[in-house]
Design a protein that fits this description.
This protein is an alpha+beta fold. The chain has a domain of 135 residues: Immunoglobulin-like, CATH 2.60.40. It contains one helix and eleven strands, in the order αβββββββββββ. The strands form three sheets. The chain has a five-stranded mixed sheet with strand order 1-11-10-6-7, with no helix packed on it. The N terminus is likely disordered. Keywords: Signal. InterPro entries: DUF4352 (IPR029051), Immunoprotect_excell_Ig-like (IPR029050).
Length: 205
């Protein structure tokens, strides 16, 4: 009888140990599961916030800088602008709508025409000016923008503006644009330095 009681106690102890192991494993498994917050519920955990979207700042429209100079788009008009240590005095000498070139290779495409401006650029400052021809731009009344014709030749009004102009010196030349036959200019712009403010606008009425 005694040996039976001893065996029974051994079996009972083994069962208790197995139960403890199972319960411990269950607790560990439960604790490893992430907490789930019901929809609309409140949780003490910090939720990630979205990064606010920063709107891009618009570029400044042409002709709105306080350093810009505006004069009428008419023959004989003169305007002056300073860019850094350089001062440009520009005179619009002549406007030719439908200009022609004697060079057989210099002709506008079908349905287009040449709009020519004869100008004088004077150095009214103390530093040399360097003209390359890309200082000019044209906008028509339909708000289309045009770059000047590269290296215009064969025009009786002169040649393209280019080269160095020393202090007190001046240079006369032409700026030519190829535009549609029915296009009319809104303004002619002279921008001596794209990295600084201060431009000249010859504005059409």
């Amino acid at each position: 009888m005694k040996w039976l009681m001893t065996a029974f106690r051994g079996v009972l102890a083994t069962c208790v140990m197995i139960s403890v192991v199972v319960l411990t494993a269950g607790c560990e498994t439960t604790s490893s599961q992430p907490a789930v917050t019901p929809s609309g519920g409140t949780s003490g955990a910090v939720r990630p916030t979205s990064t606010p979207t920063v709107a891009a700042s618009p570029t400044k429209p042409w002709g709105t800088s306080k350093e810009d100079v505006h004069v009428p788009l008419a023959e004989g008009q003169t305007a002056e602008v300073t860019s850094g240590d350089q001062t440009y005095r520009v005179t619009l000498v002549k406007i030719v709508d439908g200009a022609t070139s004697s060079n057989m290779f210099q002709a506008p495409a079908e349905g287009k025409k040449y709009l020519l401006f004869q100008v004088i650029v004077e150095n009214a400052g103390t530093s040399a000016l360097h003209l390359i021809g890309s200082e000019w731009a044209l906008r028509d009344k339909n708000n289309f923008d045009y770059d000047p014709v590269f290296a215009p030749v064969g025009f009786t009004e002169g040649e393209a503006l280019a080269g160095e102009v020393g202090p007190g010196g001046k240079q006369q030349g032409i700026v030519v644009f190829e535009i549609p036959q029915d296009a009319q200019p809104l303004f002619l712009k002279f921008d001596p330095n794209m990295f600084t403010s201060g431009e000249i606008y010859f504005d059409a009425e």
